[in-house]
Amino acid sequence: MIVWRTMIARIRWDSSDALLSYFLGMELKLVSSRQVPADERLDTRWYQLFFIWFSPCMNILGFSSGAAGPAFFSLGVRDSIAIIVTVDLGLHNVVALFSGQSLACELWYKQGFLILNCIIGGQTIASLSSQLDDTLGIVILGIISLVVTFCGYRVIHWYESVAWIPNVIAFIAMLAVGYPQLRENLSAPVPPATPANVMSFASFLASNIIGWCPMIPDYGVYHSPDASSARIFIYTYLGFFVSNVTGQVLGAAFAAAAPSVPAWNAGFDNSSSVGGLLHSVLLPTGVFGNILTALVALSISSACALPIYTLSNSFMAISTWFAAVPRWVYILLSEGILIPVAIIGAKRFYTTFVDILNIIGYWSSIFSAIILTEHMLFRRASFSEDQYPITIWASYALLPSGIPAVVAFVCACGALVPFMSQAWYVGPVARQGSGDVGVFVGFVVGVITYALARRFEQMLHKKMGKSDPY
Question: Do the beta carbons of residue 275 and residue 120 sit within 8 Å?
Answer without folding.
Answer: yes
